[in-house]
Structures are given as structure tokens and as C-alpha cells.
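Consider a typical record:
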Amino acid sequence: MKHFGSAEKTEDGNQWKWVDGRDVNIEAPFWFEDEPNEIENKCLITQVNNFNNVHTRTYLYDSNCVDQSYFICQTGCPIHFKRIGDYCYMMSSDIGIPNLPWQYARDYCQSLSVYEGY
């Protein structure tokens, strides 16, 4: 289980890495337009876009690491998860989980199944 809010910039600030060391795919379909865009921000969060109070889509943004936000978990494909490529993702906003700070979101993702040590 990987928590996608656990992505951080490398020390040189030139690359985003997931906690398992893989590069963040800047071309992934869940990035919001023109994101990531803030050189000072160190963590990735999700943002829910709504139209007339209806959830339309969840997007990935760069942010600081203390903001509370929705989050994404990666695991096998149980109910409420969406397959993108070889992995499955759960958008917390899709199942009504409240916004959480980065560490609590990571802990929640870890609790969903056997954690892979990331």
C-alpha cells in the first residue's frame, strides 16, 4: 500500500519522488492543469472540484506538508478503488473520508491492507 500524499521533492528540488523511490509521473491523468507549479511546496495533495455541489473530479496538486486535504491510496483493486495503469487508487473524497494532514492520510492508507514498508 502506498500513500500518494507521501510524495516529496528530492533534496535538490528538481524531482518529485513517491515514498517508495519511484519518480512521480508529471503526465499522470490526475494532475490539475499547470500542476505542480509551486517551487516552495514539498508535498502532493488532492483537491476535489465540485460543480453545483456535485463532486466532479479529484485532482493532484503540490502543497505544503501541513495542509489538510483529501488523499489518494494505492493498493490492489478492492471496492471504491480505480485502476490506472498497473495500480489501483482510492480517492478519499469519493467515499466521504474527511480531509486529513499528510501523516494521518498515510496512516489511513497503511491501515487498508498489508503495508509494503513504504
